Amino acid sequence: MKCKVLALLRSQQGPVSGEEISLQLGVSRTAVWKHIQTLKEEGYEIISQPGTGYLLKEVPDLLLPGELAYFLSDSIFGQNIEYYRTLQSTNEQAKAAADQGAPEGTLVVAESQEEGKGRLGRQWFSPEGSGIYATVVLRPPLKPEQAPGFTLMAAAALAQAVQQVTGMAPGIKWPNDLLLAGKKFCGILTEMKAEMDRIHYLVIGTGINVNMDPQLFPAEFRDTATSIKKELGQEVSRIRLLSAYLKSMETLYRIYLEQGLSPIIEEWKAWSITLGQSVTLTSGHEVFRGRAIDIAGNGGLVVLGDNGEQKIFHSGEVTLRNK
Ligand code: BTN
Q1: Separation of CA 130 from chain center
Q2: Which of 118, 169, 224, 227 has its CA 20 to 30 A from that of 125?
Q3: Domain spans of the chain, in order of start
Q4: How far is the CA of 39 from the centre of ligand 1 (A)?
Q5: For 126-164, how does the pLDDT look when each residue is reduced to its tens digit (9 = 90+)?
Q6: Could you tell me the pLDDT band of residue 220, with boundaries at 50, 70 and 90?
Q7: For domain 2-58, which architecture applies?
Q8: In ligand 1, which atom is closest to the CA atom of 133?
Q9: In the prediction, which pLDDT does 66 show?
Q10: Whose CA is nearest to atom 15 of ligand 1?
Q11: Residue 89 CA: which ligand 1 atom is closest?
């Protein structure tokens, strides 16, 4: 109901009375007043004018469910949103929610993370208000060996969304790092609960450096990381970017379930900056040098080694070598 009150305020050019809102939404005026108070507490600037009514003046720069709902009204993803000012990790919270039965498309989003998790046990720098830290719960009726495809799917969806919102075309470094000007601005961490022949759920967590100033990054990332703001030269609406990403992901998810991984791989390849490149692939203790030549049918990276041996990798870290 709070979201409906907000939507009604948004749709008005001028002030709207409490009575009008209560009539249109079929709730009491007291309930309307309470929802308005909650919206104000969340940071919406709503002017209450005696005699004329309520006027929405300013929307906060926060990833609030009411804001996301506005952009995602015809989507399934994001219909159920858990919003936090801060969390340890949106992936951890999404797994807890999924264990409790959270439906497919549930979104867990936070303004900051205290222990944001990266791939391969790393940390994800998650300061307040300038990045996107969001995790989606999926329940695909598939087998665990098909899970890596969802990581490629998420990376392709994000590349589409970034181009749509910023006009810049990012590159994807296998499996799912997004780069602008050769530096990483986004990472995806997919985690899964499964039995041998069935996925229970997947959580796809995405961290995006949106409006950060890279000088504020921890020293160890400063040379290799960037943000959208840095590369674009201006700030970007996090709400627009996150909702565009969720919409793209929903479309690609349907395609994956209906047509299999091939069309997802084709979309991924359109954004790839890995294929055709000389790479060093580090997987566990193995360091393999060669040329990335293709994506296998299950999403693995096919590398033709400098020693002539061809290998398919399903996990690991790619370093692009400029030869
Ligand atoms: C990477 O190492 O590239 C993956 C980074 C993934 C970070 C995101 S932020 C939202 C979600 N919650 C987490 O704890 N991690 C992911």
Answers
A1: 14
A2: 169
A3: 2-58, 65-271, 278-321
A4: 29
A5: 999 899 999 999 999 999 999 989 999 999 999 999 999
A6: confident
A7: Orthogonal Bundle (1.10)
A8: 10
A9: 83
A10: 117
A11: 14
